C-alpha cells in the first residue's frame, strides 16, 4: 500500500479523491474561459460612447470625472450581470470556477485604480486619469485574459497601449492638469468604447452570448 512521507498508509478513497481533483483542475486549466458575455462587452462599449459624449459637455468643474465614474459603475454592473446570465445558460461548473479566477485576477488592478483615482483627484491631476484608467484596466484584463481566449488579452494590450499614449501625451503636451486632456478623452472612447464593442462582437459570434 502506498504511504505518505510520515509513514502512514494512504487510503484508497483518499488517493482516488486526489486523482479526481487533479484531473478536474487539469481540465479547467486546459479549457479556455469563454464565460465573458459578448453582449455584455458591447453594452459596456455603448455606455462608454454615451459617457464620452456626455463628459464633453462640462456642465460643472467635476462633471467630467463624475460622468466617467458613473459609466464605470454601470459598465461593471452590465458586465457582471451578463456574465452571470451566460454562465447560468452554459450550466458548466468549470466555467463558473474559471470566471471566479478571472475576476480575482482583474480585481487587484481595479482596486489599485480606485485608490489612485482618489489621490489623483485630490491633487487635481485629472489630465492623467485617462491614461491611469486605461493602463490599469488593460493590465487587469491581460492578467485575467491569460485564462481565456486570445481576444481578451489582446483587448487588454490594446487598452494598455492607449493608456501609455494618453499618459505620455499629457507629459509632453504640457496640458493643464485641472481637467482631462483631449487626447486622453479620445483614447478612452477608442478603448472603453471601441475596444469593448469590437471584442464583444467577436466573442458573441465565435463563442455565443
Key structural traits:
about 210 residues, mainly alpha
Fold blueprint:
Layout: H1 12-30, H2 38-55, H3 63-90, H4 93-123, H5 129-145, H6 151-173, H7 182-207
Helix pairs in contact: 1-4, 2-3, 2-7, 4-5, 5-6, 5-7, 6-7
Short description:
The chain is an all-alpha fold and 209 residues long.
- Low-confidence runs (pLDDT<50, min 5 residues)? none
- Count of DSSP H/I helices: 7
What's the helical proportion of residues?
Answer: over 70%
Largest sheet: none
Tell me the fraction of residues in β-strands, as a range. under 5%
Rg, rounded, reads 21 Å
Order of helices and strands: HHHHHHH
CA(first)-CA(last) distance: 50 Å
Number of strands: 0
**Principal-axes shape call:** elongated
Helix/strand/pairing class, anyone?
A: mainly alpha
Overall pLDDT metric: 81
Structure description:
The chain starts with 11 loop residues before the first helix and ends with a helix. The chain has 209 residues and is an all-alpha fold. The chain has helices at 12-30, 38-55, 63-90, 93-123, 129-145, 151-173, 182-207.
Amino acid at each position: 500500500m502506498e504511504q505518505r512521507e510520515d509513514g502512514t498508509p494512504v487510503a484508497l478513497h483518499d488517493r482516488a479523491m486526489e486523482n479526481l481533483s487533479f484531473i478536474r483542475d487539469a481540465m479547467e486549466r486546459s479549457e479556455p474561459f469563454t464565460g465573458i458575455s459578448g453582449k455584455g462587452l458591447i453594452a459596456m462599449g455603448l455606455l462608454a460612447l454615451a459617457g464620452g459624449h456626455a463628459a464633453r459637455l462640462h456642465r460643472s468643474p467635476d462633471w467630467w470625472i463624475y460622468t466617467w465614474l458613473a459609466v464605470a459603475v454601470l459598465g461593471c454592473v452590465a458586465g457582471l450581470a451578463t456574465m452571470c446570465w451566460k454562465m447560468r445558460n452554459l450550466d458548466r461548473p468549470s466555467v463558473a470556477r474559471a470566471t471566479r479566477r478571472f475576476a480575482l485576477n482583474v480585481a487587484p488592478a481595479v482596486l489599485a485604480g480606485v485608490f489612485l483615482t482618489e489621490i489623483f483627484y485630490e491633487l487635481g491631476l485629472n489630465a492623467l486619469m485617462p491614461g491611469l484608467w486605461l493602463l490599469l484596466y488593460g493590465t487587469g484584463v491581460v492578467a485575467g485574459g491569460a485564462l481565456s481566449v486570445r481576444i481578451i488579452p489582446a483587448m487588454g494590450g490594446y487598452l494598455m497601449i492607449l493608456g501609455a499614449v494618453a499618459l505620455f501625451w499629457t507629459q509632453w503636451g504640457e496640458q493643464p492638469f485641472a481637467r482631462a486632456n483631449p487626447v486622453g478623452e479620445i483614447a478612452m472612447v477608442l478603448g472603453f468604447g471601441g475596444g469593448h464593442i469590437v471584442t464583444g462582437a467577436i466573442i458573441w459570434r465565435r463563442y455565443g452570448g
